[in-house]
Amino acid sequence: MEFRDLKTQYSKYKEEIDEAIQNVLLNARFIGGDPVSKLEKRLADYIGVKHCISCANGTEAMTLLLMAWDIGPGDAVFVPDFTFFSTAEVVSFRGATPIFVDVKYDTFNIDPDKLDDAVAAVKQQGQLKPKVVIPVDLFGQPAEYEAIQNIAKKYDLLILEDAAQGFGGNINGKMAGSFGDAATTSFFPAKPLGCYGDGGAIFTNCDELAIKLSSLKVHGKGENKYDNVLVGVNSRLDTIQAAILDVKLSAFVNHELDDVNEVATIYNELLEGAVDTPVILDNYYSSYAQYTIKLESPVVRDKVINELNACNIPSMVYYSKPLHLQKAFDYLGELSNDRYTVCTKLSSVVLSLPMHPYLKRRDIERICNIIKNCV
Ligand SMILES: *Cc1c(COP(=O)(O)O)cnc(C)c1O
User: Residue 71 needs a FRET pair 20 to 30 A away by CA distance; which of 36, 257, 283, 304 works?
Assistant: First the structure.
């Protein structure tokens, strides 16, 4: 069994994907061109925003935004403590200071009340300027944007939505990727919408920002690549990847997103009462980048992992270490566990199970039976 079955997906769409790749080879245009602009237009329409700017990966998408907003030394950027490293890495990379905020136990997403406290504390201290919050749509469920927007307004913060996992999710029909001042996503192969290598995109309604990002991602180009008006980077989505994503976006919209939700429903039914299943808030819709359960204790979790392993069923711990404990952030000084009790607890009990649109009912049943026997 695969954790995320990309082989089955390819076999289903082989003809279309092969043809898309072949066309790029025949045209011999590997950077930019129609496949990239067509994809950007389709993605912007799907998310419901004016602009989509594709780039090299989800991490650089965030870096580009922090560059465009001129975030650097002396600035505080608020990030959830429970997320993939990259959400905070980009902050440090820009020389700004990441401030880790605890999350909610049920949804895994940033806790708006604790965000408010964290911003107030930074303001009070007076050493750093609160500038940006990066809520993450963890495991596919959008963060609580209504509450976050109120806090952002109160403290004059920009919102960067990290929708690397949230792509396809929504709140009341408003798509992940459309919240905040700008949003980013990743097309890393295992993400809800993945390509066959690295890829990413930025979404925004702001015309000025879109123009600046389009320049920054190509060496700060002005009239052309050899007229440079800003110091930027080289961060583009390959034409081949755009052509592949064009096929995969149709599959995603036509059935894959529904299918992962169907898988989640079956998991929920079979696991109810045995373990904590994912909590999706009312009017929220998840893209189920991960299906993550919570076990009673680290011991029980180890037992479940081992039993699944013995049956050749992969499972993953996302995330085994909260960001405030990552060695890379030692330079920030001692960060007390007391401020991150939820993240610390989560890291010891979460377990992500195989999740993808091609997972069969009998496989889900097998997985759930093993888990139920363990707990
Ligand atoms: C995967 C991921 C990223 C980074 O995306 P890449 O394309 O791998 O750079 C950022 N944030 C979160 C939450 C992610 O899951």
Answer: 36
Q: How far is the CA of 362 from the centre of ligand 1 (A)?
A: 31
Q: Return d(Cα 182, Cα 77) in angstroms, integer.
A: 15
Q: In the chain, how many H helices and how many E strands?
A: 12, 12
Q: Which two tokens stand for residue 309?
A: 């392993």
Ligand 1 in reach of 87 Cβ (< 6 A): yes
**Cβ(245)–Cβ(193) under 8 Å?**
yes
Instruction: For residue 364, give the nearest of 251, 260, 256 by alpha carbon.
Output: 260
Q: Distance between alpha carbon 63 and the CA centroid of its chain, in Å?
A: 14
In this structure, the residue with its CA closest to atom 6 of ligand 1 is 58
Separation of 62 CA from ligand 1 center, angstroms? 9
- DSSP result, 100-142: EE-B-TTT-SB-HHHHHHHHHHHHHH-SSEEEEE--B-GGG--
CB burial of residue 2 (10 Å; 0-12, 13-18, 19+): middle
Cα distance between residue 79 and residue 48, in whole Å: 25
Q: What is d(CA 66, CA 72) in angstroms, rounded to the nearest whole number?
A: 8
Out of 89, 134, 191, mutate this one to test ligand 1's pocket (max ligand atoms within 8 Å of CB): namely 191
- CB of 139 shorter than 6 A to ligand 1: no
pLDDT tens digit at each of 375 positions of the chain? 999 999 999 999 999 999 999 999 999 999 999 999 999 999 999 999 999 999 999 999 999 999 999 999 999 999 999 999 999 999 999 999 999 999 999 999 999 999 999 999 999 999 999 999 999 999 999 999 999 999 999 999 999 999 999 999 999 999 999 999 999 999 999 999 999 999 999 999 999 999 999 999 999 999 988 999 999 999 999 999 999 999 999 999 999 999 999 999 999 999 999 999 999 999 999 999 999 999 999 999 999 999 999 999 999 999 999 999 999 999 999 888 899 999 999 999 999 999 999 999 999 999 999 999 999
